[in-house]
Design goal:
By secondary structure, this protein is of the alpha+beta class. It has a domain at about 10-35. It is built from 1 helix and 2 strands, in the order E-E-H. A two-stranded antiparallel ribbon has the order 1-2. The protein is extended, with a radius of gyration of 17 Å.
Length: about 60
Amino acid sequence: MKFQRVRYDTGENIIEIKIRDGTGKFIENWVLMMSDLSKWVDIIRRKYGLRFEKQREKDLDWAI
């Protein structure tokens, strides 16, 4: 997957992400455009084996 080149003059938000382990040791750094964020999430999910489970809203459980 290829990300867009980071351009500061387009008006689109730029995201900078730093990943550290549990001890605070630096692992990696990412700078990307907002439009590439969903691609980045998919890459990190596969790389670190993360799973996102859909959470139910508990406030209205009584209505079901």
